[in-house]
């Protein structure tokens, strides 16, 4: 949505590669209008009204379109070129955007975010870290699985008549918490969850917390990828990911990444000897972390560069280079290593942060295809094949699609020496 000068909000038109959901709300009403023979002028009014009603309803915009179904929305609100595109992407809520921002309440000492990256899930089942295997969608993802039609209609389905008129959210009563977000649509975006990895001095609690505090951590999309990212211009004292450093010369970085182990089915012998089959089923549906001897290949390494604002008028979006550099890797199971430098660092004369992203060869992942769009010749999404969380998609169907699992290092924050 677009915020206007008077503080009100409106629905922006589509752009290449992005269809706003508020705009699609109007399209849905327009299609219904045309099918019922309402005159053109009235249809245009109802279409415009539907788009504004959606904007005014915020995250519950879908409820302003009576009888809406997941397929009606196509791929609206999606970042089509993002990894594992999130539902209803919000660019100004990303980690990159936050890292590009500065607070100028004190112009002499701007405040900036200093955080590292971790991966996680939204798992309410007490089963963290299930991304090591892309199996058993019913158990390994965070979504709500509803096996019968009656339960689905009570919990998620919009059973209203699909009339050609939008209804403002303020005129609707008894909207349950589970309906305020489009939970039905979310089922196509639930994945097995990410992981946090730490470079710690030990495996005890104190060592792990110390690495988290130092930001010497990285995120993975679920696979246990190994990743190192260091600034190495000071040969006697490399600075690991998460560091804040100053340099009198161009910074030099080394990235090393090694792919995750290929997994074997079932559980290793030591797990079966230690726990009964019922316990293994309760913990992980009988599919333990069970590495083989072969590692997956790292396909490429990318470097992202962000230059935080040095005055309020700078557009944060123009300060993010993603990717700034990209390197294809050899097909080597021992991993991939690159060294790079930023010759423009000194001339820029400003703090700059860098982080590394290691992308693994594609493998099948639960909901790796999101809404699974069917496109026309121009690349427009014309039909979707959602992965439902109810009887419409078999619970035995894991909705697998190719995805390049990846790891993201915490940034290294570099400022020019005084």
Structure commentary:
The protein is α+β, with helices and mostly antiparallel strands. It has helices at 21-36, 40-56, 95-100, 137-140, 149-155, 177-180, 183-186, 205-213, 269-274, 277-284, 345-348, and strands spanning 2-3, 9-10, 195-198, 217-220, 226-231, 239-240, 244-247, 252-258, 261-263, 291-295, 298-306, 320-328, 336-341, 352-360, 363-366, 373-375, 381-384, 400-403, 406-409, 412-416. The chain folds into 3 domains: 2-88 and 144-186, no CATH class; 94-139 and 189-260 and 296-369 and 384-416, no CATH class; 261-293, no CATH class. The protein has 11 helices and 20 strands. Strands 3, 4, 7, 11, 12, 14, 19 and 20 form an 8-stranded mixed sheet that branches. α1 runs antiparallel to α2 (40-56). The protein is globular and about 75 Å long. The model has no long low-confidence stretch (mean pLDDT 91).
Helix content: 10-25%
First-last Cα distance: 43 Å
Q: Report the portion of residues in β strands.
A: 15-25%
Q: What ranges have pLDDT less than 50 throughout 5 or more consecutive residues?
A: none
User: Number of DSSP helices?
Assistant: 11
Tell how many strands the DSSP assignment holds. Answer: 20
Structural class label: alpha+beta
What is the CA-atom radius of gyration, in angstroms?
24 Å
Mean pLDDT: 91
- Work out the count of structural domains: 3
The dominant shape is globular
What's the story with the biggest beta sheet? 8 strands, mixed
